[in-house]
Design a protein that fits this description.
With 332 residues, the protein is mostly helical. The chain has helices spanning 21-34, 56-72, 90-99, 104-107, 111-119, 126-140, 154-171, 216-224, 241-254, 258-264, 270-296, 299-328, and strands spanning 8-13, 39-44, 80-84, 146-148, 179-181. The strands form 2 sheets. A 3-stranded parallel beta sheet has the order 1-2-3. The protein has a two-stranded parallel ribbon with strand order 4-5. Helix 2 (56-72) packs across helix 11 and helix 3 packs across helix 6 (126-140). The longest helix has 30 residues, at 299-328. The structure holds tryptophanyl-5'AMP.
Length: 332
């Protein structure tokens, strides 16, 4: 990652549950590809995870596990900076300054805030509302060019761009205005139990999700139980959200187009198609799961990598923050 003349790609993931098929196809798979060509920065968004109630021990354990899962997905600390967000205090510091340049009106329009407020009605805390500003700080702190994310983060990226442009207009050119990178396939993988909603790592129904740490039998079983639609045609169509989701998953995993998949399975039944998708996902995840177990077994090595990642991130973040502090008039 040392070559900072390259364009900068940055993204984060919240340590909740495990890396799902949605996270993998919508984001992490692209991170792995991007680390080859970009100066890449990937972090475990542990501070974002504090916006909902969590057992401290569970958060700590999940954060370590996610670090190991990212490595298992092929994120390579030799090629990318990988760290825990909370180890780089500049994220929170920049967030405060950006807060003072963000309007409550625009924040209250965020659909994820509305959804999460409905889901956690007993805990609509300030952090939940301010979450997108922390995300803007994460991104702007590193003069990021490209942010590889799934479809659900698009609105947060638009807000980040608005904040950057506003700040630059008010104080002079300070931040790079980032672009989202949302893949064509895999940007919105849906729940296996309700294909009208996105697959979410916090879904209480385990049958709705598969993750990179699930074993092969579990993955195949969940696909066998996947909710499909009436009829028997294997085609992508608006009135067939269940089958369309499975076609997209198979296409993204196998590197094919949805049209190829329709041809491949023309005339076959839903049952055999669901098994084929399950087996393809299980085969793709098997080596990841094995690597995950190996990485997680050496906690000292993980901590050492996380420490080095945080040091590099902190060094880069300081450069932007120094500029920002000066721009807004804080005494040096
Ligand atoms: P998170 O942890 O919810 O998800 C991590 C990444 O996975 C993508 N994703 C999906 N893609 C396709 N289909 C799905 N069903 C699906 N579910 C999730 C998300 O779009 C995301 O890219 N706020 C972020 C974490 C974050 C961040 C950042 C991202 C914090 N700071 C700065 C980018 C830049 C989040 O909660 O992602």
């Amino acid at each position: 990652m040392e070559d900072i003349s390259k364009k900068i790609a940055l993204s984060g993931i919240q340590p909740t549950g495990s890396v799902t098929l949605g996270n993998y196809l919508g984001a992490v798979q692209n991170w792995r590809k991007m680390q080859e060509d970009f100066s890449s920065i990937f972090f475990i968004a542990d501070m974002h995870a504090l916006t909902v109630k969590r057992e401290p021990a569970d958060l700590r354990q999940a954060s370590m596990s996610f670090f190991a899962q990212l490595l298992a997905c092929g994120i390579d600390p030799e090629k990318a900076i990988v760290y825990f967000q909370s180890h780089v205090h500049q994220h929170a510091e920049l967030q405060w300054i950006l807060n003072c340049n963000t309007y409550v009106g625009e924040i209250s329009r965020m659909t994820q805030f509305k959804d999460k407020s409905a889901k956690h009605a007993d805990n609509i805390n300030m952090g939940l509302m301010d979450y997108p500003v922390l995300m803007a700080a994460d991104i702007l702190l590193f003069q990021t060019d490209l942010v590889p994310v799934g479809q659900d983060q698009k609105q947060h990226l638009e807000l980040t761009r608005d904040i950057a442009i506003r700040f630059n207009n008010r104080y002079g050119d300070t931040f790079k205005v980032p672009e989202p990178y949302i893949p064509e396939l895999g940007a919105k993988i849906c729940s296996l139990q309700d294909p009208l909603v996105k697959m979410s790592k916090s879904d209480p129904d385990p049958n709705a999700i598969v993750s990179i740490v699930d074993d092969e039998a579990t993955i195949v079983r969940r696909f066998k139980r996947a909710v499909t639609d009436s009829g028997n045609e294997i085609v992508v169509r608006e009135d067939k959200p269940g089958i369309s989701n499975l076609i997209n998953i198979y296409a993204a995993i196998e590197g094919k187009t949805p049209a190829d998949v329709e041809k491949e399975f023309a005339g076959q039944g839903y049952g055999s198609f669901k098994i084929a998708v399950g087996e393809a996902v299980a085969a793709a995840f098997k080596p990841l799961r094995d690597d995950y177990v190996r990485y997680l077994n050496d906690k000292a090595a993980l901590m050492e990598l996380a420490k080095k990642g945080a040091e590099k991130a902190s060094w880069l973040a300081t450069k932007t923050l120094r500029k920002v502090r000066k721009r807004v008039g804080l005494v040096e």
